[in-house]
Amino acid sequence: MNNKAVTGVIVLIVVVLGAWYLFANKGGIGEGPVKVGVIMPLTGDSAKYGEPGQRVMQIALEEVNAAGGVNGHSIELIFEDGKCTGAGATSALQKLISVDKVAVVIGGFCSGESMAIVPVATDAKVALLSPGSTAPKLTGMSKYFARNYPSASSQGSALAEIAYNDKGWKKVAFLQEQTDYALGVYTAFSDTFTKLGGTVTKEEFPTETTDFRSLITKAREQGADALFIDVQAAPAADRILTQMGDIGWKPELIVSNIVVGDPEILKNKKDVLEGTLSAQYVADPLNPKFAKLLSTYEAKYGSELPYQSYAQAEYDAIYLVRDAVAAVGYDGTKLANWFHSSVKGWDGASGSVTIGADGDPTAGFNPQVVRNGVPVMYTK
Fold it and tell me: E strands of the chain, at which residues?
């Protein structure tokens, strides 16, 4: 056999082996299930969001795997407790990277989780997709971070405009929890409200605070037109509202979306919250994919789907990851690039989803007012 013939045989072997490798690895996915990390708050006050979030993602996971997964590979979710803290989320991500060897993580959920893990994920070239973090500082923070839940900037600015222009309030007092999420809401509101000509005062408190009476008293003494309760989790708001009643103060109220998204506090504090302003990333019950999620959740768990604003994004996150891996394979950099460049009019339970080059969705928060224990769309 001459050299030309030998070269031809070698080339043929390389081509055949290459084709076999690509077929066996299904577009670079590799063998076995597609491992996807999930960082959620599974302990502490914010665990009340983590548990239903897990359930929603499991529903989506079962649907995806029943339909063939990703190119014939099932998806495996690996849940870790981010504890709604930077330290907890960092520890969770380090385990997912070093032990589980994941290329993509859904999370963090809390803004403090995401703020802490973005640098770690960036160094490790692991793609992050958050269905809950809203801190404005996350916008464009890294090409490895994207979210399908809106930034708090739209929440804060919309409420500030209503407070100043519609309500005529010139001074608003804040009770702000010391978390990245709550700070993001405060900053967005304060920037807009002060530009309009208003004044904002603030009393901060750490997450572990249980006695708010001195802070409430200080806020009342500031002579504000309204009080903004800006918390990471609804239990803190519940305590604040209870202790406001204890000292006999019932001001005009604005609350972060966390509060009006909690069915328990809406029921238990129905009278106190009447007329309260807030804003949510509103779920559409007429969306067929979301309607299916509602019915599946109730049939599977025997209760109505809670925290629907987050649920729609959590459900979609599983499908977004599936589509990303199917499109570009199991590679953190390629997945991150896909989230930043290829999600344009993507059809999900949260409607038509578009994520910009900065990693933020184009959707925003809708202003609401509480009427008879139910948040409804705000109208002038």
Answer: 34-40, 75-81, 104-106, 127-130, 145-147, 171-177, 199-205, 226-230, 252-255, 277-280, 346-348, 351-353, 366-371, 374-377
Structure pTM? 0.87
Is 240 in a helix, a strand, or coil? helix
* For range 44-68, the mean pLDDT: 96
Name the CATH superfamily, with its identifier, for domain 153-280. Response regulator (3.40.50.2300)
Is it the case that residue 140 has pLDDT exceeding 70? yes
**Residues for the chain: how many in total?**
380
Contact call for residues 127 and 336 (beta carbons, < 8 A): yes
Query: 34-150+285-364 adopts what CATH topology?
Result: Rossmann fold (3.40.50)
Rg (CA), the chain: 23
CB 363 within 8 A of CB 262: no
Counts of helices then strands in the chain (DSSP H, E): 14, 14
**CA 117 – CA 136 distance, rounded (Å):** 16
Quick one: pLDDT band at residue 2, thresholds 50, 70, 90?
low
Alpha-carbon gap, residue 118 to 139, rounded angstroms: 11
Residue ranges matching CATH 3.40.50.2300 in the chain: 34-150+285-364, 153-280
